[in-house]
């Protein structure tokens, strides 16, 4: 019997494998190049008494969502501000502040939100709203303020322009949420309105925080549903696409970002824990509406987050946690 058909099939198999290897390799190289092009900013938080680092390979990442300063969509971008030599004080404020803890095994993630109007001490500026820390000193002052607030070490900072949030939503094909009991599929523009709304919500900024958390949960659910997170090639392509929507500190190089994406691809919505720091009230102080925190319990909560023990902390303490999709206002 001739071996030619078998040899032909073998050559086809080898050729196809080589082509796939070249394509995947080219994609990885291209993605690495794009990841290196992400805007980066310096981050130096070293100082006496700084909180200790998380154990092992666990990471604490501060995520700051920054709104359009004039609401027009045509003004200066935060990426350009971060690239400048002098920070433009007063131009930007962080409307979403989330501390993300990734344990060493990357099998779960815990996210704690700090309301933007939280009334806290900001180094060099006394007590004021926490989102003013970003306005006064950019990512570095915001990260230091969070570290001082809770005794948690921030390893990295990611800044997302809210205009970038709309692009993220469109890149993944939209997200599904419930509004007034009805399921809604939101595109980027609609998602931006969803996470920005607060005046029509019963608890104002506190309900807006839950909408921001719910958006992140819905985003991951969509990525799981489409099979993106389970497919390394799709995931790398998505990572490249998302690179145009963020700025990161200079310690987050291309290899680290790629590794985090691949190591976390097993995460599912049920693996995420969302909570908000303990709030005591929403008074008006010096003519401004603020959110007052239970500072000792906030510090305890953030320390537990940094140690990977947030779930245990929540079992013994009451604070806002993210409810089911239909219960989010």
UniProtKB/TrEMBL annotation:
Residue ranges of domain Cell envelope-related transcriptional attenuator in the record: 93-221
Protein name: LCP family protein
Residue ranges of the TM segments: 12-30
Pfam families: LytR_cpsA_psr
Family as reported in the entry's similarity comment: Belongs to the LytR/CpsA/Psr (LCP) family.
Signal peptide: none
Keywords attached to this entry: Membrane, Transmembrane, Transmembrane helix
């Amino acid at each position: 019997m001739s071996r030619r058909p078998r040899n032909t099939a073998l050559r086809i198999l080898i050729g196809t494998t080589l082509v796939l290897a070249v394509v995947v390799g080219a994609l990885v190289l291209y993605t690495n190049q794009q990841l290196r092009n992400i805007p980066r900013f310096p981050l130096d938080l070293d100082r006496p008494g700084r909180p200790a680092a998380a154990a092992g390979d666990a990471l604490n990442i501060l995520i700051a969502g920054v709104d359009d300063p004039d609401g027009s969509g045509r003004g200066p971008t935060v990426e350009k501000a971060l690239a400048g030599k002098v920070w433009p004080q007063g131009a930007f404020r962080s409307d979403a502040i989330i501390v993300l803890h990734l344990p060493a095994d990357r099998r779960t993630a815990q996210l704690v939100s700090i309301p933007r109007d939280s009334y806290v001490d900001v180094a060099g500026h006394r007590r004021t709203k926490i989102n003013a820390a970003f306005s006064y000193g950019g990512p570095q002052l915001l990260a230091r303020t969070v570290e001082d607030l809770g005794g948690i070490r921030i390893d990295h900072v990611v800044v997302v322009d809210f205009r970038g949030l709309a692009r993220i939503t469109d890149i993944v094909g939209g997200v599904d949420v419930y509004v007034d009991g009805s399921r809604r599929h939101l595109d980027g523009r609609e998602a931006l309105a969803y996470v920005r709304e607060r005046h029509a919500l019963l608890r104002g900024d506190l309900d807006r925080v839950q909408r921001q958390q719910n958006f992140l949960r819905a985003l991951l659910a969509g990525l799981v549903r489409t099979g993106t997170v389970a497919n390394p090639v799709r995931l790398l392509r998505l990572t490249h696409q998302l690179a145009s929507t963020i700025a990161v500190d200079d310690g987050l190089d291309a290899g680290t970002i790629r590794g985090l994406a691949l190591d976390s691809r097993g995460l599912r919505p049920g693996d995420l824990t969302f909570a908000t720091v303990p709030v005591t009230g929403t008074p008006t102080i010096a003519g401004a509406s603020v959110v007052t925190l239970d500072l000792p319990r906030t510090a305890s909560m953030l320390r537990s987050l940094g140690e990977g023990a947030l779930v245990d902390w929540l079992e013994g303490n009451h604070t806002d946690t993210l409810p089911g999709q239909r219960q989010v206002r």
